[in-house]
Amino acid sequence: MAATPSDVRRWSILAAGTVAQGSSAMAIHGAPFLIPALRDDGLSLAEAGMVAAAPTLGVMLALVAWGLVTDRRGERFTLLAGLASTAVVSAVAMVAPNPALLALALLVAGACAASTSSASGRVVVGWFPPGQRGLAMGIRQTSQPLGVGVAAISIAGIAHAYGVTQALAVPVVASALAALLVAVVVVDPPRPEPTTATTANPYRSNRYLARVHGSAVLLVVPQFLVWTFALVWLIDERGWSPVAAGGLVAATQVAGAIGRIVSGVVSDRVGSRMAPMRWISLLAAVTMLALGITAGADWAISVGVLVLATVVTVADNGLAFTAVAERAGPFWSGRALGAHNTAQFLLASAVPPVAGWAIPQFGYPAVFAAAAVFPLAATALVPVRHEHPLA
Question: Which residue in 21, 231, 353, 354 has the most C-beta neighbors within 10 A?
Fold first, then answer.
């Protein structure tokens, strides 16, 4: 059957939203790949970790506000405003004269990049029917690991060869190109007429959304631990070069992107977002414990377990994101998704500096193994029995 104009439009918008979110992921999550270069400039691991966490903190501070903008002004406006400002502020970060001002500029860049989170998610939910949303959101969620993968290759390699300033040109270019694509392609999805039921606060009726937020928050701890310190662990503990380590991290991000699509398709097939999310949380706990054990034993297989951990710990994101948008509805999903990601980034922003302090004290294996506690706790919190059937 030939694709209709509506089909072409929705898939084109999905592609543009994915590119937009990917460019923001490079701006937000690319900073950890500056850690080796920052250490070469004289910063300690903890200090470099704080610089790397700055964009994440900026995201956390701005997500709810951007969600409100999305609810009031629409997805297209929010994406364009956020991407353009990300490019400008990232360019300012290139000329920061010291680490403190660099961290401040990266914080503001992260706040600007936060715009794409709610907006690109809502535009996907708005243009796709329920039976395709898991797949569509899984594709959209590939933007984060793919963006991190591109950042691992480009930012890590450029920083190693030329320094921090030149490496920061990557998010500048990526954000500017994504803004141009959004301007050409994205159209706001149709919205129903507001009613008392559709505009009511979805948090007042039950604790479903709060439990989705809580379980997703716990699951970001192993994800951000692996994302932030995989490169450094490969260099410090396994003796890899920065370029080789960046290449492996990039490859694992591609595998993680595929994992997100698979989990989304599974959720469409089983008619549930929460059941697959619980399965993934259990697997994440087992994988992080295995990473700690194999790294502690200095087994070569620990590198393979690291790859598996990178894939597993990102596989749940699209499920939680889709579930929040579906339950919150078109008049609250911007704020609900903003609150969801704010809670995630609040804890995620603490991971680099806390782990940066803990690793020298206790070692990589102990920190990796300890992270298994968080997905194990999330397993009990995932609200499988309170989920509505997909309509």
Answer: 21
User: Both tokens of residue 134?
Assistant: 């898991």
Q: Mention every residue, 6+ apart, whose C-beta is less than 8 A from residue 299.
A: none
Q: Are 238 and 303 in contact (CB under 8 A)?
A: yes
> Residue 250 CA to chain centroid, in angstroms?
15
Query: DSSP 3-state helix, strand, coil percentages of the chain (rounded to 5)?
Result: 80, 0, 20
For residues 78 and 71, give the distance between their C-alpha atoms in angstroms, rounded to a whole number. Answer: 10
Would you give the distance in Å from CA 254 to the centre of its chain?
14
Structure tokens at 204: 């007042």
Residue 197's Cβ-count burial label (10 Å; 0-12, 13-18, 19+) is: exposed
Over the chain (391 residues), what is each successive 10-residue block's mean pLDDT? 64 93 91 87 82 86 87 90 96 89 94 90 83 86 81 86 90 95 90 68 85 94 90 90 85 84 90 93 97 94 94 89 83 81 81 89 95 96 85 59
d(CA 121, CA 278): 22
* Dist. CA 171–CA 228, nearest whole Å: 17
The C-alpha atoms of residue 247 and residue 254 are separated, in whole angstroms, by 11
Hey, is 387 helix, strand or coil? coil
Which of 180, 177, 155 lies closest to 35, judged by CA?
A: 155
What's the pTM?
0.74
* pLDDT for the residue numbered 132: 86
3-state secondary structure labels for all residues of 157-212 = HHHHHHCHHHHCHHHHHHHHHHHHHHHHHCCCCCCCCCCHHHHCCCCCCCCHHHHH
Contact 278, 384 (CB under 8 A): yes
* Torsion (CA) 319, 323, 329, 332 in degrees, nearest 10: -80
CB 202 within 8 A of CB 339: no
CA distance 163 to 175: 20
